[in-house]
Fold these 3 entries.
Entry 1:
Amino acid sequence: MASFEDALFSLQAAHFEEAKSLFASLLEQEPDNSEFMAGFYAAGYWANRSDQLSNPEPARPGTGLMEAWDSFQDLAEKKGFAATRSIRSVMRAVLGRASEQYRQKFQREGMAHPDFSDLEELGKCLIRIQDYGNAREILQYARRIQPTHSGIHFLLAECFLNEGEQESAERGLGFYRDGFIIQPTQFDPAYAFSSVVQETLQQLGEEKENDLDRILLWLPAYLMAQSQYSGLRRLNRDEVSQLQRETHRLEKDLENVMDKFKEKVQARLCFYYLALHQAAIFVYDDRDYARELMDSLKALHPGLAQRAKEATGK
């Protein structure tokens, strides 16, 4: 008798015809089981496209399969299958093969001058199949090529946050802080799998009536309020001075900005106050400046000030 675990194993191993047969047997026993329906659908879909996975010389290594997966995922979501184990299993098969294609391309062309976008896509691919160790290695290489690309910082943050250790988690929060300093708009919630970010997004959704623009506007400050630890990368004096200049500029803007832009300025100011507060406490031991920052934060958002206080344990 076919078992669900056997069927999942066949999906993940990209044995799609075998998986289709196993899921068909399971559906005979439980025709309304959504997991079995999802598995049967996925197996049939990719059985008809198996050449995309087995082609030794694809026209667009890695990228073609990534796009094919995104198209399939859209269909799976419309059918209500996206959250099933069956879809996660076939994802590991397809995106695992995509990552292999990227690596083979690097081996052929050499890593002396790799394409940055390929490195980024490989990192994304590995994160989606939860291969965080290899993703981190690839993304750290990509960061050496483009050190100010905030999207790479966000992806690296997820790699560290998903390792499960406190030291790694603090490094991950540091990468999020750095990415939000550089360019917050490059944050992509589709790759935010860590519990701390998911919980923060959920809380913001409740507070901001699920308005995605407002959620993403406040995410840097809310996450920074939870990042009041010593393990973040140390901000140097030049970085602190730059944040202080930006803070003073926004404080002046807040007095005159039009109402429709006021929340954007407030959210950014709160983030800067909190980033500077973490540095004042844990890097420069400037308690007086830390209190000034907290007073300014309280005036704008008392709730964030309280969250930061709880994070520092003071």
Entry 2:
Amino acid sequence: MPDALYQRYLRALEIYQDHRAACSTCTNSRRCREGDRLWDAFTRSQDAYLERQRSQRGKPNSR
């Protein structure tokens, strides 16, 4: 079964990338309001996933 937190973080990235491809305002150094919101959602999801990975590191049977 896929990890739900990991899937959520990848989906947030996909949504941001789709927006970025269609948005004429967003660039590498600047984002529109919607792009900024989507990027923030992605980074929060990624941070949560990575924090959980760090907290599980070294624990036996942490899957």
Entry 3:
Amino acid sequence: MTIIILNIFACKKVYSPVADDEPVLIRKEDTLKTYSPIVSFEVTGHLLEDKRIDCIEPDYKGNTWLASGQELFHYKNGTLENSYTLGFSILDISIAGDESLWIATGGGGLGHLTKDGITWYTKDNSGLPRDYITNVEVGLDGKVWFSSCAHDYGGLVVYNGKKFHVFSPDNSILNQHVISDICLDHNGTIYAMTLSKVNKTNIYRISGDTWECLGNANGTFYWVTAVTVGPSSTIYLLEDFMLSSSTADTNKFYTYKNNEWRRLRPDFMNSRLSFFTALKADRREYCWAADIEGNSYILHVFNGNSWELAPVGLFNGDKITTIETDFDNNIWIGTAKNGVFILKQ
């Protein structure tokens, strides 16, 4: 496996946009344990067997939420507690420290589901740039981060429980308005990825009021279709050149650790057609990568040194749509037609 180091020019800035009278938020728990180093592909659970799984979100208290289209399913310690049908497609979900759920939707705005029902935050009632919200992440401090944006307006929004603040290229170091993903590490650091123009994709690291661009301020990657951040801040991403007119460009797989980007060269990535449908760093910082190879859907796992391949035909040979890990490091594999499979590690 060849590793190539990508030199970067980091930029850093401090922002303090929120007033001193911000409310006290409920913190989230995140405790790392000792996990087995062995990768297991044994299926120990199978839920919602006839559903497409779009989002999976566990918390430290035994709650797991799953989204399928406009449907939400709430499991508590493995038992189905409730299900809901919303009026909009569910694009992302995140559990808060009080066990409530924040919901990003395709046109309905940002939803907040509590035991009392759903509160909706929209362009009309909350001044959001758009009601199309692609991702949401509740920080360990309880603040809610989400995208509300388009090519030339909006950006990364943070809600402190009292008011919303929109970060954009106009008032921050973000180089584009569109935020295509938001991730969280064990220390509570937020990572946001911009994506709108080719050669302009950047990853930003937000810790408290300090923002850093992990690369070139003008743009670090051509295009990125998948990114994930592990508990100890290791980043994995796929740089995608399928939009490029040059046949010399091939898709590239990178990892970020110890403040530098390194290109990995997995044996199965040998052309610009290599494509990950899902990417997830587990609690050990291993990277689970769902790949399309011809007409087959393949699952690879990188343990930091080498790759392991899941048995062919696992998950009924279905396309993997999303991957999540719970706090015991069980791996939850969401599929396009066959629900979610659980792999105990």
